[in-house]
């Protein structure tokens, strides 16, 4: 498995980004690949088992644990 820490970014202005707020303390995306995406602030796994990190592009994810905004631009 490959673990990648996503960059913490400021909260985007309304209408400038697609934002996904993860509600539960489980990864929002789960697959059968080898790439995991983790919160760059607290380490929470937001995506698990992706085929490649670029599967999630141009999204801002909100970590359910620490509420950080994470850029999926890798």
Task: Describe the fold and architecture.
The protein has 74 residues and is mainly β. It is built from no helices and 7 strands. It has strands spanning 2-9, 18-21, 29-30, 35-39, 45-50, 59-62, 69-71. Strands 2-6-7-1-4-5-3 form a 7-stranded mixed beta sheet, with no helix packed on it. The protein is globular, with a radius of gyration of 11 Å. It starts with a strand and ends with a strand. The mean pLDDT is 92.
Strand percentage: 35-45%
Shape: globular
Class inferred from helices and paired strands: mainly beta
Give the terminus-to-terminus CA distance: 17 Å
**Spatial arrangement of strands, main beta sheet:** 2-6-7-1-4-5-3
Helix fraction, binned, reads under 10%
Identify the quaternary structure here. Answer: single chain
Uncertain runs: none
Give the radius of gyration. Answer: 11 Å
Order of helices and strands: EEEEEEE
Number of helical elements: 0
Biggest sheet statistics: 7 strands, mixed
What is the residue-averaged pLDDT? 92
List the helices and strands and how they pair.
Blueprint: E1 2-9, E2 18-21, E3 29-30, E4 35-39, E5 45-50, E6 59-62, E7 69-71
Parallel strand pairs: 1-4, 2-6, 3-5
Antiparallel strand pairs: 1-7, 4-5, 6-7
């Amino acid at each position: 498995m490959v673990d990648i820490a996503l960059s913490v970014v400021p909260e985007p202005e309304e209408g400038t980004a697609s934002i996904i707020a993860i509600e539960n303390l489980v990864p929002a995306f789960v697959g059968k690949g080898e790439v995991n995406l983790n919160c760059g602030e607290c380490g929470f796994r937001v995506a698990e088992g992706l085929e490649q990190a670029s599967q999630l592009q141009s999204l801002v994810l909100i970590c359910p644990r620490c509420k950080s905004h994470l850029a999926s631009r890798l």
